[in-house]
Amino acid sequence: MSASDLLRTLRLAALAEDRLAGALREHGLTVDRWRVLEHVVANPGASMSDVADALVMAPATATRAADALVETGAVYRATDPADRRRVVLHPTATGAALLDGVRPSAAAVASELVVAPQAASATPGRASATSGRTSS
Q1: Please, which residues have CB within 8 angstroms of residue 78's CB and are 6 or more apart in sequence?
Q2: I want to staple 12 with a disulfide (CB 3.0 to 4.6 A). Which of 72, 105, 115, 120 is the partner?
Q3: How many Å apart are CA 17 and CA 5, to the nearest integer?
Q4: What is the DSSP letter of 86?
């Protein structure tokens, strides 16, 4: 992959995150919270370190996102029965329903970007405009 290809990929990733953030906002989620919720629904019983590692996310960012999801009732924390020192996350019915409601919006963003990957090259200023956003 050339440097130019890498730059286009990074622009596309920034554009995808920006568009996804807009779609998730109406559901009360941030991109980080959505990522954590997706992971916990797919991997019930994941620890915070499992989540952070799997999502290539800073542990503090993963914890803030999980805290917010716990606060809204989308996930809950429990003690791992195999290791009482370890805390794990499980989705709730509310979290699963929230994710089901969000998935069509996420899929629409994904298909929009797959259909027009040149959008990353066409909007270089858009991606940089979102670099100061906050997540979690």
Answers
A1: 87, 88, 89, 90
A2: 120
A3: 18
A4: E
Q: What is the mean pLDDT of residues 76-84?
A: 93
Across the range 3-29, mean pLDDT stands at 91
Residue 43 per-residue DSSP state: S
Paired residues of 88 in beta bridges: 47, 78
Q: Is the pLDDT of residue 117 over 60?
A: no
Using the Cα atoms of residue 19, residue 24, residue 28 and residue 33 in order, give the sign of their dihedral.
Answer: negative
> How far apart are alpha carbons 100 and 10 in whole angstroms?
28
Q: What is the pTM of this model?
A: 0.81
- Which one-letter DSSP state was computed for residue 47? E
Q: State how far the Cα of 33 lies from the Cα of 28, in Å rounded to an integer.
A: 9
pLDDT of residue 43: 97
